[in-house]
Design goal:
Bound molecules: zinc ion
Largest sheet: 8 strands, mixed
Number of domains: 2
Number of strands: 8
Shape: globular
Helix content: 25-40%
Strand order of the largest sheet: 2-1-3-4-5-6-8-7
Distance between the termini: 69 Å
Radius of gyration: 24 Å
Amino acid sequence: MERFRGYLERLTLNGRSKERKLPAMPSLPDDRPQPLAAISPLPTATANSKFFKSLPSEIRRRILIEAFGERILHLDLRLEHPLKKYSKKDRELVKPRPERHANAHLFHPSLRDTTKAQEWTWWSCVCHSRFPNWNFNQDPPGVKIFGEEPAKDGCRDPFMLPRCLCVLYPGHAPAKCFIGVQGWLLVCRQAYIEGVDVLYSTNRFHIAYAELAICLPRLLPMQHLSAITAAELSWNLTLPPSEYFRWDADDKDGLQSCDRLALLARLPQILPNLRYLYLSLQDVLRMRQPMLAIGGHEMYEEIEEVLRKVDAMIVRMSQLQECRVALPLSLYSTRKLVEKGRDIDWRRGTDLDPETLWRNIPTSTSDAPTDLTTVNQSINGYWIVHGVEDMYPPPLPEAV
Ligand SMILES: [Zn+2]
Ligand SMILES: [Zn+2]
């Protein structure tokens, strides 16, 4: 009877949790005090500091960059059930999950209490899926190991075997997996002004999903968004927002009525000073019925429609110097077959050419804004690279 009652209670709680009103996404207050960086620091605050008094500003900046700049930083905010709470006795019986980069193992569903309502949960860290000597400012597109492509990033994945390379980085885990900048920013106003500029202007931000990128102005002050110069974005085109994201009841950002491709048009305003953009398009034609033949002209034309929207966005990014658009393998393969008459080197090894295609932005497209004052194009094309793996390699030809 006891067990039956417990079952009924769990069932009711689960049923209720679906009906529970989800909390609104956290948001900056409408009335914000003056930005900290706009208030002059007091000279007395740093009068006794050798760091500020003995070192010139360019050396201080270099030190700060070494400490927490020129990295790839993950930015993620999603709805999660709270962590299960175990009694001391239970804890001894539960087999611990292997620790992952930046505590990502804590997102495994077995550790989350689904009887409790979801809550918005921040997760940010330094990316450890690439080698420590990896220099994101110098890598030409398509020449690196495919596993290092941002589309394949597995830093947050709690299921896969650890793909991260934390062990190659100095320091102790998990502390070394996090940015660790907060302590410095709280030292004094001068430290904040210099540190926050390094944080936003020298790092590359890997933003977890399209809706989060669109909601950034509600989460970060505009002066910080304007300082961001490099971003990696995952953009799922066909799937509706999943369990980890729900728009607010009043849908302030108009996400419910807007398809994911149309949302791209908002990016130039949200991140106005991007110089580098990596855009990983996902599930592009997944819902297309009937499914088009890979490598055929029909599929090529459908991809072309998607890329025209990307073109229209890029021509409005006035500071952009380099852009890479990652297409799922089925689409990348189609582009390459039609444009070059040959397929991807699926087995990797025989083709030494970089796996990339150049796309010139057509001078006029139907999707381009007609108001020429909004166009301040700085680049005339971008690299198309292969992105998420959405198909298995085709079978090898039979030996004769
Ligand atoms: Zn990563
Ligand atoms: Zn790590």
